[in-house]
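Changelog-adjacent note: as of this version, every example in the card shows the full chain rather than a window. The one below runs 198 residues end to end.
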Amino acid sequence: MLADELKQLFDRSMRANAQIVARAGGVLKEAAQAARDPQRLSGKDARALLGELVKLQLDYLAQLSQSSTQYLGAVVSLAESAVAARPAATDTAAQATALSGRVGETLVFQFQIDNPNPQPVSAAIELQDWTSRSGSSVGQDSLVCEPAAAVVPAHELSTVQGRIAIDERFVPGQTYDTLIRVAGFPGRQVALSLSIVG
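Full-length structure tokens:
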């Protein structure tokens, strides 16, 4: 699991950092002893060495602290955005779009998909069969939407063109209903009502 891998990576990093800090502490201790006994450094300035080592240690700790703070801040921000309450999705059509036509005609319509999110969303059109008010049905193959799938940019609209081929399966005098669902946007749907003129 990703969480376990991250925990193991973090643990390894902390152990490695602890070993480096322990080694650095040992070097600092040696340098402090050398500062009291300049003979051990073969003529090098022990006090200057100790000062440089202390400065390196402090710089390292400052950078480690800053990097840790930035990383943890990014992790918290990501987690907050993932669990933040999303606004309730509203249906793209509160009422059915009423269309009418005769057998042999092709009707054209369009609708828009609004992406209120701060990131792009992949949307896919899901079609269903037509159902007449008397209970009979006509296959969804009579309905085509283009594009059938698209990535809707953040805070933008995407227009979908629809086409209905009214063939002999539709009975004059009947009204047929269907719902077009927009996968990727929960609750988004377009209701169509098609009356076949005799």
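Structural remarks: The chain has two helices and ten strands.
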